[in-house]
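Researcher: Next sequence.
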Amino acid sequence: MTRKRIGGRWLAAALTASAALLSGCAGLGSVDPDELPGVYRDDATGGEIVLASDGTFSATDVSGDAVGGGGTDPVDFGGRWEFVASSGSGDFVYLTVDEGDLGEVGGMKLYPSGRAVEFHADPDGPPSLVLTRTAAA
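Model: Next structure:
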């Protein structure tokens, strides 16, 4: 019995350590919020989001189902954005939607990943839309 308990404890400790490591890897890395402002675009769909340095944003021609708004028609919306450093679920940008075609949507998360930002309509699924930062004009 003692050997089984020790083996069970070792297994539990190994699983806990693995989960901690994976959650750290699942995060999209350290993000410098000062580098987030800019224009991000999906060339295939024409969707675009602009994160302004004053904390506002505008999104144009973004597929409604990609942002969880339903429907495939492109939508335009805007509001305020705020960077949230989160060790548990990875850093993200919280978008407070104040205007546009999304109706009663109060807000959504946008995940920075390298030189791109990602929408996840399904929080547990893959990105529903990836917008890549464009070169400064």
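Model: Residues 38 and 55 are 11 Å apart (CA to CA). The mean pLDDT is 79.
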